Amino acid sequence: MNLEGVEKTMLLTLYAKAKHSQNKNHRFYDSKAIEVISKVDYDFSIAEKDKLMQMGTIARTIVLDKMVTDYINVHPDCTIVNIASGMDTRFNRLDNGKINWYNVDLENSASYRLKYIEDTDRVTTLAYSAMDSAWAGEIEKRKDVLFIVE
Predict the structure, then answer these.
(1) Strands in the chain per DSSP E
(2) How confident is the model at residue 43 (pLDDT cuts 50, 70, 90)?
């Protein structure tokens, strides 16, 4: 499966999270990112050299993880919709055992994701453009819904 343009960035950000998680003083630990990166056949030398991308990814992850965690703590039975999710593994880091999670991304990206990160009974990947409102009809709504666009 070929990833083009912006689709490749989903691997670079996943790599940054995996690498950060393996540091002694990590601010978050992402075992799923480490697992997936170990299975992906991709030349990560570009990501390795791009320290600014890595730092930006880590900073966004720390901030958004805190915001999403705060929301989950107040709304423990919520539905979360991650738009343009790529290979994001936030569910694996923040799951409280109750939330429902939807990953929405383009068909090629969604297919690639599902090769490495399987859906579960509470995680569903939807292959749609964020601009196609049809994906909204597939969301099983609970009383509280959080949308993430990173």
Answers:
(1) 79-83, 100-105, 123-127, 145-149
(2) confident
With CA atoms as reference, report the closest residue to 15 among 64, 63, 67, 51. Answer: 51
Contact 106, 85 (CB under 8 A): no
Give φ, ψ of 103 to 5 degrees: -105, 120
Q: For residue 38, with 0-12 CB atoms within 10 Å meaning exposed, 13-18 middle and 19 or more buried, which class applies?
A: exposed
* pTM as predicted: 0.91
Both structure tokens of 116: 């490495």
**Both tokens assigned to 22:** 């393996």
Backbone dihedral angles phi then psi of residue 107, each to the nearest 5 degrees:
-55, -50
